[in-house]
Amino acid sequence: MVVKPGSELLPTARPIQLIDENGDRATRPRSGGHTLPPADALLAAYRALVVGRRFDQQASSLVKQGRLAVYPSSHGQEASEVGAVLALRPTDWLFPTYRDSVALVTRGIDPVEVLTLLRGDWHCGYDPAAHRTAPQCTPLATQAPHAVGVGYAARAKGEDTVVLAFLGDGATSEGDFHEALNFAAVFRAPVVFFVQNNQYAISVPLDRQTAAPSLAHKAVGYGVPGVGVDGNDVAAVLAVVGRAAERARAGEGPTLIEAHTYRIEAHTNADDATRYRADGEVAAWLRRDPVERLTAHLRRTGALDDAGIAAVADEAERHAADLRDRLPAQTPPDPAELFAHVYAAPTPQLREQAARLAAEEN
Amino acid sequence: MTALSMAQAINTALADALDEDDRVVVFGEDVGALGGVFRVTEGLTARFGESRCFDTPLAESGIVGMAVGMAMNGLRPVVEMQFDAFAYPAFEQIAGHVAKMRNRTRGAITLPMVIRIPYAGGIGGVEHHCDSSEAYYAHTPGLTVAAPATAADAYSMLREAVELPDPVIFLEPKRLYWSRQEVAPRARTRPFGEAAVRRAGRDATLIAYGPSVPVALEAAEAAAAEGRDLEVVDLRTIVPFDDATVTASVMKTGRAVVVAEAQGFAGVASEIAARVGERCFHALEAPVRRVTGLDIPYPPPKLEHHHLPNVDRVLDAVAALQWEDA
């Protein structure tokens, strides 16, 4: 038996970066041979980052005001979520987790519908088929095999759809992560596995999650390319996901991407991050902020000026105000709907229970 | 009409479904070249090609999870779990997603898929090859749970399962794989949710499903020799549950015994006994009895006959239905 070399599947020594912490262009070897996306793509990403961050702040405020039950913040991870989504076509599929609300907003889903889950009105507020975006998944990594199946079916039907599955660092310890990567590799399914390594699974740090040199290194075990990327550099995320998507679309199979980023907030409003991490660590990551970095870069290249910044800030503010205005108008479904979607046709037992509940309501 | 074994009937149902609907795909462990460890998928890859019936890596959660995605995107996957107890790695996918996707998305995403599980014991199999796992699935809202007892039903019910817009747990009683019955080509029996009265009787009702139906029928024959006329109801689907047929039978006979091979505590047999008690209390001449497996992990092959419900135990339960008061 001849063991094939796998070195071409290994990630680069350091995560790929195209714009550094100061807003300057990164060069080889940090760029990993990727070229900087064009100015219009970076401006679109800038807009999505600012709108996404404002949405995230607004959602966190709504929790404090008691208008949302819970909100797992994307703060600090916006470049990963925005870059990954903007690298996809509208016909591609997205499999988000509970932390990826900014990705959903970037995808064009109504923020009110994004927050339906977290208001406690229903388990998913948007139409996944219409948006080609699965419901936000709560049990870790369980959405990854679904992504493989959607990709497999697309290829069986002769479509060039690509599927991107978001995962967190904690999810890479789950069996479904392994099974999905293995299935995708064996069937050459057009899937991009995008791990946001934000350093913590609630309170458990990465070194308790894995002894691997990096999460991207896990790919080689499946015969899949593993790529590490600076998850706070939206330009690098756009480029790396873009290449992985092209590869998948061309029938060359899946890619595992590890985006190195950081969860600035606690796991959710119900969590206390001071119990397991030091303030200094957060401060260090704040200096690598994805929005400030891109702003500095675009200013330096002349693509963005004060007026441009103000215009995008205004737009983000309008979206936030619109969300505040419209959220209260959303009302939970009629309790009768509890029985409506369990089966295509309710069982006789469900019809009896629906009648009893209706009688209680009257 | 041809006499088919239940395994052949299921094979024919899969072939006809593959033939009639391009969206149907069959996959699992050893289902391709080998034709499955019970040969249920024999010849399907040769006839329909590797794209329609294929082997996967050995990972049940991956198999069911991939099927979820395929169903989300327009296919109709029919997957095989090699054995009942080998399906447990897939349980999170089944309970967490398969059962809930329609409800979660308010009907926007439906999962037309079938999970076939060779199930239950009585074949001298080892510990992890003989579980009666129906209660786990029946307890999970959103799943349809089917357990045929005849070859004709196996064909008809599998065709219906593949056509249904919702996920179906299709429990194939292993010990009935080789039982034969005349099955007319492409013949449908009756729809899900309708139990079948396999034997009409006046004195007591035996309620069974899957592998326990032949036991109940044999017990009814033996009881007839002793002058007791037993009715046998074959549930066919545990979910949906046919309260109407069961209730009508027990209201008529006034006595009921539930026969199920699974361990009894907190099981499907207990649910049935409770439902009959709630609906038929004033017509009952005696408490509803259960004849089930023992509350033990599945026994080794040489001891399994102690565990499985048999004719004598059913007759004992029938004898205990307070006939002296009649």
What report would you give on this structure?
The complex is a heterodimer of chains A (362) and B (326). Chain A is an alpha/beta fold and 362 residues long. Chain A folds into 2 domains: 7-331, Rossmann fold (3-Layer(aba) Sandwich); 334-362, no CATH class. Chain A has 13 helices and 7 strands. In chain A, strands 1-2-3-7-6 form a 5-stranded parallel sheet, with helices on both faces. In chain A, strands 4-5 form a two-stranded antiparallel ribbon. The mean pLDDT of chain A is 95. With 326 residues, chain B is α/β, with parallel strands linked by helices. Chain B has 2 domains: 2-183, Thiamin diphosphate (ThDP)-binding fold, Pyr/PP domains (Rossmann fold, 3-Layer(aba) Sandwich); 196-325, Rossmann fold. Chain B is built from 12 helices and 14 strands. Chain B has helices at residues 6-20, 44-48, 60-72, 91-98, 101-104, 134-138, 151-163, 212-225, 243-253, 268-280, 304-307, 311-319; strands at 2-5, 24-28, 53-55, 76-80, 114-119, 144-146, 168-173, 180-183, 196-199, 204-208, 230-234, 237-239, 256-263, 289-293. In chain B, helix 10 links the parallel strand 13 and strand 14. In chain B, helix 1 runs parallel beside helix 7, helix 3 packs parallel to helix 4 (91-98) and helix 8 packs across helix 12 (311-319). The longest helix of chain B is centred in the N-terminal third of the chain and has 15 residues, at 6-20. Chain B is globular and about 65 Å long. In chain B, 58% of the residues are buried. Chains A and B meet through helix 6, helix 7 and helix 8 of A and helix 3, helix 4 and helix 5 of B.
